[in-house]
Amino acid sequence: MHDSRETFVNHAFVVGHPIRHSRSPLIHGYWLDQLGIAGSYTRQDVAPQAFPAFIAALRDKHPKFVGGNVTIPHKEAAFRLADRPDALSEELGASNTLWVEDGLIHATNTDGRGFVANLDEHAPGWERADRAVVLGAGGASRAVLQALGDRGLAEIHVVNRTVARARELADRFGARIHAHGMDALAEVMQGAGLFVNTTSLGMAGEAAPELDFSGLASGAIVTDIVYVPLKTPFLQQAEQQGFATVDGLGMLLHQAVPGFEKWFGRRPQVDAALRQRIIDDMEH
Ligand code: ATR
C-alpha cells in the first residue's frame, strides 16, 4: 500500500488504433481535476498485432498502471486476453474496461450501462416503452440489446441491412428480440416507444436515409449512439417530426463512470460542465 497521497500517482489509459480522436482523456482528466486526485489518463495507440504484448505488460506495470479503456479495434481481443472477464463481457464477447487486481487483468463492458444511464438522465421513464426498435446489428447494437433486455423491455425489434447478423443477435439475446431486414423497418416502427440508431449511418460526412418517424407511439423517444455530429440526421428528422430525442454524447460520458471508479476509487458525476467541455472540443 502507498501511504502518501501526494506521491501516489495512478495511471490509466485508453487503448485503440487509431486513437487520436478519443475524447476519453478529456473526460477522465476533468474528473481527476474536479476530485483533486493525483492521477493521469493517456491515449495509447497500439496496432492489433502489438495488443497481446500490451496486455501482458500491464500485469507487470501494476500498480503504476491501474487499468484503462479499450476501444476499436481491440474490444474482442481485450475480452479474450483478460484473465478475469466478467459475465457481461462473456455475454457480449467484448470488453471496454480493464483493471488490474492481485496481478490479474479483470474486464467488463460498460457500453450498455452507459446507454441506459444516458436515457435515464435525459428521458426518465423511457423503459415503459412497450416496444423498441434498434437499427443495426454490430458490436454497439449487441451492448444496447443486452441492456434493453436487462431492463425488461417486452418487445425489441432489431433491424439490419444484413438480416443474418440481426438473427444472430436475436438468437443470442433471447425470445423477446425479433430480427428483420431493412424492408420491415416502417412496419416495426408502428407504435414503438423507443427508436435507437446504432449504425454509422449519418455519422460526420455520411448520408443517412430519410426516415418517417410518424408511426411511433406518441411520446416516443429517438436516440442515437453516434455523437459526431451531436444532432445526427436521424435526430434532426425525429425532432422535426415532433419527437423527443436523446443524443449519444451522454452514453460516452456515462460509460466512463465505472472505469474511473475502479481505477481511482471515487464515483465521478456526469455534469453539464463536462458535457459542455466535450462539445467545445468537438467544435474546435
Ligand atoms: P459497431 O461495432 O460500431 O456497431 P459494426 O460492427 O461495423 O460497428 O456495425 C455497423 C452497423 O452499421 C451494422 O449494423 C451495419 O450493417 P451490416 O451489418 O449490414 O453491415 C450498419 N451499416 C453500416 N453502413 C450501413 C449502410 N450504408 N446501410 C445500412 N446499414 C449500415
UniProtKB/TrEMBL annotation:
GO terms for cellular component: cytosol. It comes from the Bacteria. Shikimate binds at S22, R23, S24, T71, N96, D111, Y227, Q255. NADP(+) binds at G136, A137, G138, G139, A140, N160, R161, T162, V163, A164, R165, I225, G248. Residues 14-98 form the Shikimate dehydrogenase substrate binding N-terminal domain. InterPro entries: Aminoacid_DH-like_N_sf (IPR046346), NAD(P)-bd_dom_sf (IPR036291), SDH_C (IPR041121), Shikimate_DH (IPR011342), Shikimate_DH-bd_N (IPR013708), Shikimate_DH_fam (IPR022893), Shikm_DH/Glu-tRNA_Rdtase (IPR006151). It catalyses: shikimate + NADP(+) = 3-dehydroshikimate + NADPH + H(+). Residues 248-274 form the SDH C-terminal domain. Residues 130-199 form the Quinate/shikimate 5-dehydrogenase/glutamyl-tRNA reductase domain. It is an enzyme of class 1 (oxidoreductase). The keyword Oxidoreductase applies. The active site is at K75 (proton acceptor). Pathway: Metabolic intermediate biosynthesis; chorismate biosynthesis; chorismate from D-erythrose 4-phosphate and phosphoenolpyruvate: step 4/7. Keywords: Amino-acid biosynthesis, Aromatic amino acid biosynthesis, NADP, Oxidoreductase. Its EC number is 1.1.1.25. Gene3D superfamilies: Leucine Dehydrogenase, chain A, domain 1, NAD(P)-binding Rossmann-like Domain. One of its GO terms (molecular function) is NADP binding. Belongs to the shikimate dehydrogenase family. HAMAP family: Shikimate_DH_AroE (MF_00222). Involved in the biosynthesis of the chorismate, which leads to the biosynthesis of aromatic amino acids. Catalyzes the reversible NADPH linked reduction of 3-dehydroshikimate (DHSA) to yield shikimate (SA). This is Shikimate dehydrogenase (NADP(+)).
